[in-house]
Amino acid sequence: WLICPFLDARQNEVYGAIFRGGKQLVREFEDLCVPIEALLDKIDGPTTFVGDGLQRYASVVQERFGGDATFANPIFNVPRGAGVAQLGYARFLKGQSDDYFSLAPNYVRKGVT
Q1: What are the pLDDT digits (tens) for 57-92?
Q2: Which of 22, 43, 26 shows the shortest CA–CA distance to 14?
Q3: Is beta strand 13-16 parallel, antiparallel or unpaired with respect to 2-10?
Q4: By C-alpha distance, which of 112, 100, 4, 109 is closest to 51?
Q5: Is the whole model's pTM more than 0.70, yes or no?
Q6: Is residue 53 within 8 Å of residue 74, measured between CB atoms?
Q7: Can you say whether residue 50 is alpha, beta or left, with left for phi > 0 and alpha for psi between -120 and 50 degrees?
Q8: Backbone phi and psi for residue 94, each to the nearest 5 degrees, phi listed first
């Protein structure tokens, strides 16, 4: 099963990614900033979609995938601090951490630095 989070990037593009689902998510592609059609072209099976991009593009997704598209509960369409904290806590319990001085944003739209 695939999971496709995407956000409306304006300018007729979306920020998106594709993961193979399960207990451990496996990234299928690097983060993208592309027109919705280009993101959907990379999907090859039943997929759960989530993110604020659904407000604008749910009908495009539904038309393209029909019954192979499911939509996450809208409460999950907006990133929340509690979700980020939960992910961080899970990493902490595994003994994983990051050097916060070396963290950097991931700009995926061309021309943004």
Answers
A1: 999 999 999 999 999 988 888 888 898 899 889 999
A2: 43
A3: antiparallel
A4: 4
A5: yes
A6: no
A7: beta
A8: -90, 0
